[in-house]
Amino acid sequence: MRIIQAPSTNEAIQTVATLILEKAISHPRSVLGLATGRTMIPVYAHLEKLQKIYENPFRDCFFFMLDEYLELPEGHPSSFKSYIKDHFVKPLGLKESQFAFPPADLSGGDEHYENLIKESGGVDLQLLGLGLNGHVGFNEPGSLKSSRTRIIPLTEDTLRANRDQFTDKIPTHALSMGIGTILESKELLMLVTGKAKADVVKYILNHHDDPNCPATYLKSHPHFTLVLDPEAASKINLNI
Q1: Any idea which architecture 2-228 has in CATH?
Q2: Options 27, 133, 173, 207, the catalytic residue
Q3: I need a surface site. Which of 74, 85, 130, 144 has the fewest CB within 10 A?
């Protein structure tokens, strides 16, 4: 596990964007896993700036989305498919055919999505955020380390955290890559920013393979990089 404590939030964002860019440049046909959420918006905005300098290094990459709310109508503005189109696909001039999106219905899309990942050769670099309760993707507390892509009921904590993204009723279930699926990625890259995440960051660093905090499972991955801004790192001390 590699921990990068950036001197500012902006530099944490730039660090993550640069690591993603470097992967695309060094391996032009990389398979990249993308996450959503407020934390990632400035990362994608910075990648938009960088890709103009490097003449669209993502043009031959393929992308998998980490998760999606279930039973939202096609084109719903709060879907993660709409999010990634607005913040990544269109700004970077990419094609929708370069993306695999988790099915937003109940038609057995979990097994199909797993098969798509395997057929691609696996994810080379998976970008991740962190939930306040330690969830990764929508793998809520109680998720098993061996879990695969599946339909997951969302906890009250997660519903409360995401409620402001919906003007109508918020979905209560999501399809998410499982922890086992995520751990099969060749590299994991997690960005955590903000004082609200300081407690869960401290918990992760002091616990191992704890189902009450699924993010602790990631520490067993041989190539896991955790990037923190000063506020997210405010309750840990790595200078001992």
Answers
A1: 3-Layer(aba) Sandwich (3.40)
A2: 133
A3: 74
CA 151 to chain centre: 17
Q: Could you give the C-alpha distances from 213 to 5, 26, 111, 116, 162, in angstroms and in order?
A: 21, 33, 25, 28, 19
- Among 68, 110, 140, 229, the active-site one is 140
Distances 85 to 17, 36, 97, 137, 152 between C-alpha atoms, Å: 18, 11, 12, 18, 24
pLDDT bucket at 2, cuts 50 / 70 / 90: very high
Chain segment 25-81, per-residue pLDDT in tens: 999 999 999 999 999 999 999 999 998 898 889 999 999 999 999 878 888 888 999
184: closest CA among 134, 138, 117, 100?
117
pTM: 0.94
Out of 110, 114, 124, 135, the active site residue is 135
Q: What is the pLDDT of residues 151-184, one digit of tens each?
A: 888 888 888 877 877 877 788 888 999 999 999 9
Q: Which residues of 14-33 are buried (b: 16+ CB within 10 A; e: fewer)?
A: bbbbebbbebbeeeeebbbb
User: What Å distances lie between residue 180 and 3, 50, 91, 101, 107, CA to CA?
Assistant: 22, 32, 32, 19, 22
115 catalytic, yes or no? no
